[in-house]
Design brief:
The complex is a heterodimer.
Chain A: E1 5-7, E2 10-13, E3 19-24, E4 31-37, E5 44-50, E6 53-57, E7 64-68, E8 74-78, E9 87-95, E10 99-102, E11 106-110
Chain B: E1 4-5, E2 10-14, E3 19-21, E4 24-25, E5 32-39, E6 46-52, E7 60-61, E8 64-69, E9 74-79, E10 88-96, E11 105-107, E12 111-116
Parallel strand pairs in B: 2-12
Antiparallel strand pairs in B: 1-4, 3-9, 5-6, 5-10, 7-8, 8-9, 10-11, 10-12
Classes of the chains: A mainly beta, B mainly beta.
Chain lengths: 111, 117
Amino acid sequence: ETGVTQSPTHLIKTRGQQVTLRCSSQSGHNTVSWYQQALGQGPQFIFQYYREEENGRGNFPPRFSGLQFPNYSSELNVNALELDDSALYLCASSLASYGYTFGSGTRLTVV
Amino acid sequence: AQKITQTQPGMFVQEKEAVTLDCTYDTSDPSYGLFWYKQPSSGEMIFLIYQGSYDQQNATEGRYSLNFQKARKSANLVISASQLGDSAMYFCAMREHYGGSQGNLIFGKGTKLSVKP
């Protein structure tokens, strides 16, 4: 079985732009969640998808949105980027919300 | 109020010695799970150990054990025989079982462990 793969690994965007981050889940995992980890902090929950439907959301504004596809891969979209959006974005896949397998993350820098 | 508290921003341990990383949690849910993750500089969160709130025995996984004290709401990670490769950030996390965000993890701020040769 493969692990969780995220792309790209690093990204630099300008304030106001839009960005799409991608995640390929571990085989067979039907739940994917996204986390934002600011420098020196623990990860913060953004949202979670189960069978292509959002079924949980943290304290993030609507400009953070996502999709989950039938093959369980996922996207995180962020519109109108702000400087504070600079962070490591982690994707985690799971089966039946027990074990979570994390990817290596996408490091986003907004300038 | 913080749900997961890790009071040690940084810890040092001598190679081959044991070290305890502290974690306290706050929840009113009787059903919850506690996790420890290791995050090296590469960024990936590596699962170490899990303890369910109804588990009678403390979890163990190789050199990792979890000192679970339910009444005190603490879930300390013990690493025995530290190795240089254990140097990393360590995060305690909790999963609750109620509400719209069922299934997501709540993380602490982490402890940076440095193993000295």
